[in-house]
Amino acid sequence: MEAVEQEVHTSGVHVLLDKVSQSKVRLPMLEVVYDRFVRENSNSLRNFTSYTVDVEIADNSTYKFDDIMQKYAQSSVLSVFKAIEWDHFGLIIGNADLVYSCVDILFGGRKVQQKMHFEERAFTSIELGIIRNIFDVVLEDLSKAFEPIAPISFQIERTETNYKFAMIVRPEDVCNVLTLNVIVGNRSGELTIVLPYPTIEPVKKILGKSFIDERGGKDPIWNRFLEGEIKKTTAEIEAVFGGRTATVHDFTKFKVGSTIVLDIPPTSPVNIKLNGALIAQGQLGKIDDYIAVKLNNIFIGESNK
Questions:
Q1: For residues 77 and 75, what is the distance between their CA atoms, to the nearest angstrom?
Q2: What is the per-residue pLDDT across 28-47, written as a single tens digit (0 to 9) for each?
Q3: Same structural domain for residues 43 and 121?
Q4: In the chain, fewer beta carbons within 10 Å around the N or the C end?
Q5: Residue 194: is it exposed, middle or buried by C-beta count within 10 angstroms (0-12/13-18/19+)?
Q6: Is the model's pTM score more than 0.85?
Q7: How far apart are CA 135 and CA 132, in angstroms?
Q8: Residue 261 has pLDDT above 50, yes or no
Q9: In angstroms, what is the C-alpha Rg of the chain?
Q10: CATH number of the domain residue 270 falls in
Q11: 147 lies in which domain range?
Q12: Gap between the Cα atoms of 198 and 204, Å rounded
């Protein structure tokens, strides 16, 4: 009985009190964004370093912000960046191995066959400047990856080496954490992108979808093509001005120039129909030598027939 009660406690009350369990939701479209981002970023870093660079996803998980600081922020460079359109902040973290590897490569370091070990020390201003340039490249690619979901610009606000000065949310707030393994030649380092849930709140519903539909992820190229095709599309519209009942015998008397007398006054409304559906009503008139209809009521989107 005691074992059962303990199990209920850990699976019931504990889950209710655990903010991570409450807030952890699957974001399928965020995974798509990250896949696109990794492919683009590998090419961008190769161009930036003129060296062989591969970027791989090592982990994509959800943590409390305080746990992130304890796990990733030790002996690392942290840059706080702002999501301009979402008016909130994120964090990008590069560990010491990544910093030293990039500096060594960019300054013409020799190729090595085994992982190099670096002494623990404070980062120099040159090292901080180089890793910040790397962060700029990464955030630019992340912005492009988000573009089909929602236009967003990520801009670095400041760079810190002490995680206490990089507190962008409360310690108990939940964040999505993308950990990347950056392989530079025979060296490797770890880069981490932290997106707090309050930051992605404006697009959280879109990121929670299983596929991109008409609500989110609009492809601008497809939109322009579709708009152009719609503008070139033609449709036959008919104007129906009343009517009258006639027998077959009356039709046999029709000749060119015959006049059909309708049983409605000239001021009666003209029905405008598209494929048999009533889309508007107007008033009969004349412009120069043409008969015209002035629209008074439009029923597009309604079920009028």
A1: 7
A2: 889 999 999 999 999 999 99
A3: yes
A4: N
A5: buried
A6: no
A7: 5
A8: yes
A9: 33
A10: 2.30.330.10
A11: 11-223
A12: 9
